[in-house]
Inverse folding.
């Protein structure tokens, strides 16, 4: 059974950077990604990486964020640069275990202040 553990997050000033990390236990994890949910908003894709290292990003990222695999198996990190107040949200890591079992992390708060 896959479990997802997130780390990172916190508070930063506008223009700053943060790095989020996520690790999934278990086997046959085909996709890992980061989503976010701001107050009163729907959860939206930030970035994802599939087996074979194909990546996808939300339109709002505009080259500011990078998702990449970590050194450990089934680990990814999200490097976020040039943060703005609009990036304030709870960030969730998602892992998809073959064929289509979705597991979410508990979420980590990112707060960007001016």
């Amino acid at each position: 059974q896959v479990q997802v553990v997130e780390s990172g997050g916190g508070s930063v000033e506008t223009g700053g950077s943060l790095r989020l990390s996520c690790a999934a236990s278990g086997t046959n994890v085909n996709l890992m990604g980061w989503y976010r949910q701001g107050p009163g908003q729907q959860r939206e894709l930030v970035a994802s990486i599939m087996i074979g290292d194909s990546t996808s990003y939300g339109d709002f990222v505009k080259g500011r964020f990078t998702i990449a695999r970590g050194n450990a198996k089934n680990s990814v990190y999200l490097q976020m640069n040039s943060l703005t107040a609009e990036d304030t949200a709870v960030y969730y890591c998602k892992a998809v275990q073959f064929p289509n079992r979705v597991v979410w992390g508990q979420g980590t708060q990112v707060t960007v202040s001016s």
In short: The two ends are 41 Å apart (CA to CA). The mean pLDDT is 96. The first strand starts at residue 4 and ends at 8. Residues 20 and 101 are 23 Å apart (CA to CA).
